[in-house]
């Protein structure tokens, strides 16, 4: 098992290295000069050249990349072209908000999908199972931002139970933090929960038809007992894959939800940086998001090794 883990860790490190090169080159070839943007269209060529030298943009690309990646290794993402403030501390603060949102959203999705998906599979020929399948199918068609606006209209505007947006750090007021997190988490979790419910239903339904479950039931176990004792581990394999993909989707999809609920997360920072053409900040944010997706895939691979003993030597 140690060999399998080390092999996947090596793949992760190589993927992060390649991703950093791709992100850097993509930002480097974008049109526009950050120094010109920072100074405005009326800046003289001498001022632009001076600022390019200050930003280090007059150096060869390989030198710029090595300096950038070496700084990231020590937690230094550089200084913003626009605000002239360090990017690293901003990324840490914004990443914390996004992680709270994504964590709460995936918790909601799993809490919805596991019981409902299993119930829909066990009762797939009964009205309750058909109803769950129908509702999950409707949920697939609803984008997260639309779900967010509907939730705001209902629970914030009409009922006044929850705030419509804003962010309170948990170390300031836990109650307000939780109240402000409920609607964004629901807007992400309900939609992703509908997707995950379909996969849980399909996986459990396939497992229910396996011979070993029929044998377990023939020995006197009830269907639920046979499923819990012998089937859920095998049914979890495809669900873990989908869950990993959904986590990556939530991490990227949080960009829009953060805008809807005015949350100061990575998504809001990314959109603001793009609007002001702060390319170094965009470069850092994109790399953090890409590394986040790669880490999720790495964890999914490890879970596969844990759930499936046949992969421990692979």
UniProtKB/TrEMBL annotation:
Keyword Transmembrane helix: yes
PROSITE patterns, sorted: ABC_TM1 (PS50928)
Recorded GO MF terms: dipeptide transmembrane transporter activity
GO cellular component term of the entry, any: plasma membrane
Transmembrane segments: 9-30, 99-122, 134-157, 177-196, 235-261, 281-307
Boundaries of every ABC transmembrane type-1 domain copy: 95-304
Keyword presence, Membrane: yes
Key words, A-Z: Cell membrane, Membrane, Transmembrane, Transmembrane helix, Transport
Topological type in the membrane: Multi-pass membrane protein
Locations listed in the record: Cell membrane
Homology family: Belongs to the binding-protein-dependent transport system permease family.
Record's protein name: Peptide/nickel transport system permease protein
Species annotation: Tamaricihabitans halophyticus
